[in-house]
Amino acid sequence: MPYQWESQEEPVRTLKLWPHQSLQPRGFVIFIGATCAMLLLPLLPLLGSVLLWLLLPFLATAVFGVWFAIGKSRKNARILEILTLTDEVVRLERHTPKKDVKEWECNRYWARPQIHDKDGPVPYYVTLKGAGREVEIGAFLSEDERRALFDDLCRILPSRA
């Protein structure tokens, strides 16, 4: 699961969330190598032909396009959210791929987890509400993971209705 409680003991609890990375660096190298091999295999009969040199730039462009798209996707997935809970404060930090840090802080008594089944940007959208703001948490998680995250947050931040 792409989130983990770093510390569970009171008075400070820390939760780290990150997007799922299905393609690790070794898998990326294997995928690009296999793509190159599959694109070059049909070119073997064209060795020594002018047609090879006419097709090669297009195939190189295709490989570069796949490389660039996967690299951009991997860079955009470098998000880290850190939720810190103390006796007094709930603090959420979001580290973006551009090295920006967005912060939200609220008195723990007023912090409320909320789940939006259908009216959020993604199904089962989880937010934290407090201090006059509502911030998203774990929007990059899958539906099941967002539901589990919401259950965890409800256990730790019980409602005071």
How would you describe this protein?
The protein is an alpha+beta fold and 161 residues long. The protein folds into two domains: 3-21 and 80-156, PH-domain like (Roll), CATH 2.30.29; 25-76. It has three helices and eight strands, in the order ββααββββββα. It has helices spanning 25-40, 50-76, 143-156; strands at 3-7, 13-17, 80-85, 89-95, 101-107, 112-116, 125-130, 133-136. The strands form two sheets. A five-stranded antiparallel beta sheet has the order 1-2-3-4-5, with no helix packed on it. Strand 7 (125-130) and strand 8 form a beta hairpin. Helix 1 (25-40) runs antiparallel to helix 2 (50-76). The longest helix has 27 residues, at 50-76. The chain starts with a strand and ends in a 5-residue tail after the last helix. The relative contact order is 0.15. The model has no long low-confidence stretch (mean pLDDT 90).
